[in-house]
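Translate structure to sequence.
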């Protein structure tokens, strides 16, 4: 199979790469417990949140490959910010496709322009991403819904403005009773509890407790009971999620490998650069093999998605492979740097912690 990027896609990739290197490549940004609003706004101004969103809400027509390029290039400097972009699309695309006019008018432009940050409230302490175990309920009450339950962990929940919540409107019929609701996170009855993690600090995860939170019926996304197919088509279980997750892992691994290669050429031990040592050379070769294999798998899956070919198997395999790949490559990078790689000030240890967190928080592949 042959696939290549178009001229427009290549220009887009260059623009994203340029922004990431200028604006995101700082250690200080990586260690913050939030994403600065001015960074979100700059990304919004450049159209980073508006691909494939209707033009009347500030969107732009684009390929899935372009969203993939965005994820990969941003992840080379910040997995957490690339994660924020992916989650934003998991809110805005269902809203644009299935939301009411009122919900789109009130929230979609803010999300696409970077003025608002979205999050996904799906997982729960007792069942994780197994929606059959969802305990959060949304009971129809006159012109709206009353929500009770708890969601955790919710990435970007601490600083999020609106969440796409999945709750049972009919608890007796399994996944068929799951409904998607857009929930403004400043409503009365919502309590947040921050969750401390070993990495992905700007993802600012938290738990939410919903105690009689009322949302209007017009904030329902799709029909009652259609929450699972909406999430399977555009959320955690979608081909889109699997591919973009893989490309985020790929971007992070490329930077970790680049840092390891550079260090191995500069670090002299026993009279010669450590890159000349067979043990180090073998590790670098294995890292390069894994990165190249992951690149081919993820980009082929993205290309198939744009061609409207069956991509579910390719996307799932790419996700499963890149989860292992990013952990191996970042771990080897720390090992090659030795003591320097274990120091908090060096970026490779952050890539290792963030890679572990991303592979965990973003779920396993559905093969």
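Result:
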């Amino acid at each position: 199979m042959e696939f290549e990027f178009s001229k427009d896609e290549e220009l887009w990739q260059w623009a994203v790469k340029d922004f990431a290197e200028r604006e995101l490549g700082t250690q200080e940004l990586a260690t913050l417990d939030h994403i600065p609003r001015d960074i979100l706004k700059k990304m919004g101004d450049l159209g980073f949140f508006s691909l494939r969103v209707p033009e009347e809400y500030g969107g732009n027509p684009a390929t899935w490959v372009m969203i993939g390029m965005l994820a990969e290039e941003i992840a080379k400097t910040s997995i957490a910010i690339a994660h924020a972009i992916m989650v934003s699309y998991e809110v805005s695309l269902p809203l644009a496709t299935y939301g009411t006019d009122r919900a789109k008018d009130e929230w979609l432009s803010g999300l696409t322009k970077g003025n608002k940050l979205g999050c996904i409230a799906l997982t729960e302490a007792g069942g994780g991403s197994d929606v059959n175990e969802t305990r959060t309920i949304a009971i129809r009450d006159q012109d709206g819904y009353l929500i009770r339950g708890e969601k955790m962990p919710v990435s970007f929940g601490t600083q999020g403005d609106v969440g796409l919540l999945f709750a049972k409107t009919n608890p007796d019929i399994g996944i068929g009773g799951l409904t998607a609701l857009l929930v403004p996170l400043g409503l009365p009855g919502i309590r947040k509890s921050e969750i401390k993690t070993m990495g992905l600090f700007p993802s600012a995860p938290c738990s939410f407790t919903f105690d009689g939170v009322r949302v209007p019926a017009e904030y329902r996304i799709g029909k009652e009971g259609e929450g699972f197919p909406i999430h399977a088509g555009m959320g955690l279980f979608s081909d889109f999620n699997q591919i973009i997750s893989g490309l985020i892992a790929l971007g992070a691994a490329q930077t970790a490998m680049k840092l390891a290669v550079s260090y191995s050429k500069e670090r002299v031990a026993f009279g010669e650069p450590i890159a000349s040592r067979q043990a180090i050379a073998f590790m670098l070769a294995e890292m390069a093999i894994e990165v190249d294999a992951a690149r081919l798998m993820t980009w082929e899956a993205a290309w198939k998605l744009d061609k409207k070919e069956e991509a579910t198997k390719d996307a799932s395999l790419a996700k499963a492979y890149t989860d292992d790949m990013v952990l191996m490559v970042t771990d080897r990078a720390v090992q090659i740097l030795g003591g320097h790689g274990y120091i908090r000030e060096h970026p490779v240890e952050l890539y290792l912690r963030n890679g572990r967190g991303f592979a965990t928080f973003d779920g396993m592949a559905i093969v």
